[in-house]
Amino acid sequence: MKAMILEAYGKEPVAVEFPDPVPGPDEVLVRVRATSINPIDWKQGSGKFRPILTASFPFIAGYDLAGEVEALGPGVTGFTKGQRVHTRLSGRDGGASATLVKAGLDVLCAMPEGMDFEQAAGLPLAGMTALQGLRDVGGLPMTGASKRVLVVGASGGVGHFGVQIAKSMGAHVTGVCSERNAALVRRLGADAIVDYTKPNAYAGVAPFDLVLDCVGSAPGDFLEKLVTGGIFASCVPGAAVFARQAINMLSSKKVLPVMLKANAADLAVLDGLFAKKQLEVVIDSRYPSEQLGEAWKRSASGRSAGKIIVTW
């Protein structure tokens, strides 16, 4: 198999040939057709987040992938060779940036009808983060959520899913983005837009029951925008989020981190929303596997709208 590897922190990914992996019990071998870029990929590869996020070299980065079942591990049932599947790989060891990848049954789903490999690769990590942030951390029910939700970073990888999932739940959604992405965010279902580049951008904006922050904002900047009992859910939690979480019991407003738990059941929920045309995977750009480093640079620029896809 071919894999794009890092030989040390901060190096550019290079193509290397490895022996084909062999799936074990409760594993499926997938021939990869597309992967997607998430900030964890290049953050892990840079080494800037050590010791919290480390890499073992040679390191095969990436977590999201879509492809076809190449082989089944011993005793595996429920999947067939050639079946179209997608996943967010479990754990924190990466592994997606290769032509053949082993995936656990606990995180693997068959792709729904009408979904192509690029869409399927773009959905898992970002989609599950948004879903778990809204439902598990934010407390929104899957239907009938008559709440006001603010999505910060509404045009990004996680944010554009957050807007759509919140709308499918029944919430009133305000998206925070620049004017250049406002039309996209409205098309995805936002009821209102806040252009963060304008002075006094939040003037006249009513308080929210939930803020889903997808860009790593300081929670203190948003607490006054929450109703009593409101929640600030951070999909990019930093030290300020964890410090504030420690004193939640002293406040009427909660600050909570969103800690992704990859699992097949939640990926199936997202696939169901896609099948019902309530969820769209917006693709910002596409790169061939040999340009993985350029795809990382696009993600690190913070300018992408939707998902960055790598084709294999």
Number of strands: 16
Low-pLDDT residue intervals, each spanning 5 or more residues: none
CATH architecture of the largest domain: Alpha-Beta Complex
Largest sheet, if any? 7 strands, mixed
User: CA-to-CA gap between the ends?
Assistant: 12 Å
Which structural class is indicated by helix and strand composition?
Answer: alpha/beta
The CATH homology group name of the largest domain: Medium-chain alcohol dehydrogenases, catalytic domain
Work out the helicity level: 10-25%
How much of the residues is beta strand, in percent? Answer: 25-35%
Which topology of the largest domain does CATH recognise? Quinone Oxidoreductase, Chain A, domain 1
The sequence of SSEs as H and E is EEEHEEEEEHHEHEHEEEHEHEHE
Written account of the structure:
This protein has 312 residues and is an alpha/beta fold. It folds into two domains: 2-123 and 281-311, Medium-chain alcohol dehydrogenases, catalytic domain (Quinone Oxidoreductase, Chain A, domain 1, Alpha-Beta Complex), CATH 3.90.180.10; 126-257, NAD(P)-binding Rossmann-like Domain (Rossmann fold), CATH 3.40.50. The chain is 24% helix and 29% strand. It has helices spanning 39-46, 117-122, 124-137, 157-169, 182-187, 239-245, 264-275, 292-300, and strands at 2-6, 14-17, 27-37, 59-60, 64-72, 84-88, 100-104, 108-110, 148-152, 172-177, 192-195, 208-213, 226-234, 254-257, 283-288, 307-311. Strands 3, 5, 6, 7, 8, 15 and 16 form a seven-stranded mixed beta sheet that branches. A six-stranded parallel beta sheet has the order 11-10-9-12-13-14. Strand 13, helix 6 and strand 14 (254-257) form a beta-alpha-beta unit.
